[in-house]
Design goal:
Elements lengths: L12 H13 L6 H14 L3 E5 L2 H11 L7 E5 L5 H8 L3 E5 L10 H7 L4 E7 L8 H8 L5 E5 L7 E2 L2 E2 L6 E5 L12 E5 L2 H10 L8 H5 L20 H32 L5 E3 L6 E2 L5 E5 L7 H10 L5 E2 L19 H9 E4 L7 H15 L2
Parallel strand pairs: 2-3, 2-4, 4-5, 5-8
Antiparallel strand pairs: 1-9, 6-7, 6-11, 8-9, 10-12, 12-14, 13-14
Helix pairs in contact: 1-9, 2-9, 3-4, 3-7, 5-6
Length: 377
């Protein structure tokens, strides 16, 4: 019996050709392909500016820096997210403050954000968890009157929509991931999008050691101009090799989303008839790309989450535990926080089922059959 992976990227001959073209050009570092990818991504996401980075984590770091967040500031974050969401505020010396999430979407809400605000709150990082769009306008109705910056962690969000537009389109700052677990991949890599031209300019400088002249501009000159290092910067650059893949992947995005939503609809229909399982769904304000199709194992189900994971593994089906709770991780266990009952429930009771573009009907039937046999135990 062949193994069914939880996710695998959709890459093909077009990506190979794009990378080959870059190699043959002799320019493989950050250069013209990165600029072209930034332009294409900004256009697709309806963003004013896009700045390619080495990862979503580095994009979050830059977002906090250009947004003016620093020591003595508090940043509200969901614990129910990959640990990078919590790590990023610590990079700038700020204190992460955990907020609980909605039990249906797994996202922050206006109410959970408001409950977590402190006199020192400078920013909120709101996540589109698993591709489910966060209700950004509702959160900003709480934060905007207080002068609090909202950064959208859209790591999983490419291809999802919010109120008829791409997620991130209404954000002052948004950070994106192109890790292989995401729909659109460059291997590793990320993007920062923003409505603020000055923030975009500074992010481009900071990602390249804060040099006054970009590496691309220097290498394009026979006699390179002298450069200065304007502040302490970082090496957060994307390569043209990665960007070439990203441009091709961006052209595939609509088809990837269509296929994943088709797979999700098949899961929806099957799981609706399995007592004790609750599947993630689209919220009323948008559509998910189903970067992760997660299921809550309710107490009345025949086995707990760990038992179901083991049952699926016995059928060579590689599911995953649901989203982590960052406040339980040793790196952040010392942070004081209010009770997070929904976060802990979802962390303990959810799992992610296999979804990938190339998934066959037979493979999905195997997953569904395994869920049904578990329910019958």
């Amino acid at each position: 019996m062949t193994r069914i992976n939880v996710m695998q990227p959709w890459l093909g001959a077009e990506e190979v050709a794009a990378v080959t073209e870059v190699i043959e050009s002799g320019w493989v570092a950050q250069g013209p392909k990165v600029a072209a990818f930034e332009e294409a991504f900004a256009r697709r996401q309806e963003a004013e500016h896009a700045v390619a980075t080495s990862s979503c984590t580095t994009a979050l770091h830059l977002a906090l820096l250009v947004g003016g967040v620093g020591p003595e500031d508090d940043v509200v974050v969901p614990s129910f997210s990959f640990v990078a969401t919590t790590n990023a505020p610590t990079y700038v010396g700020a204190r992460p403050v955990f907020a609980d999430v909605d039990p249906v979407t797994g996202n922050l809400t206006a109410a959970t954000v408001e409950a977590a605000l402190t006199p020192r709150t400078r920013a909120v990082i709101a996540v589109d968890q698993g591709g489910v769009p966060v209700d950004l306008a509702a959160i900003r109705s709480v934060t905007d009157p207080r002068g609090i910056l909202v950064i959208e962690d859209a790591a999983c969000g490419a291809g999802s929509t919010y109120r008829g537009r791409p997620v991130g389109a209404g954000a002052e700052l948004a950070a994106w991931s192109f890790h292989p677990r995401k729909l659109l991949t460059t291997g590793e890599g990320g993007m920062l999008t923003t409505s603020n031209e000055e923030w975009a300019r500074r992010a481009r400088t900071l990602r390249e050691h804060a040099m006054s002249v970009s590496a691309a501009a220097r290498h394009a000159s026979v006699l390179a101009p002298p450069e200065e290092y304007l502040e302490v910067g970082f090496n957060y650059r994307m390569t043209d090799l990665q960007a070439a893949v990203g441009i091709v992947q961006l052209g595939r995005l609509d088809e990837i989303v269509r296929r994943r939503r088709e797979i999700a609809a098949t899961y929806d229909e099957a799981i609706a008839s399995i007592d004790g399982l609750r599947a993630v769904r689209d919220p009323s304000w948008g559509t998910s790309n189903f970067q992760s199709y997660w299921v809550e194992v309710e107490p009345r189900f025949a086995m707990d989450r760990e038992g179901l994971l083991a049952h699926l593994a016995s059928a060579e089906i590689s599911a995953r535990r649901g989203i982590m709770a960052a406040h339980r991780q040793p790196a952040h266990a010392a942070l004081e926080h209010a009770p997070l009952p929904v976060t802990e429930r979802l962390t303990d009771a959810t799992l992610i089922l296999p979804v990938f573009h190339q998934m066959t009907a037979e493979e999905q039937d195997r997953v569904i059959d395994a869920l049904r046999s578990a329910a019958a135990r």
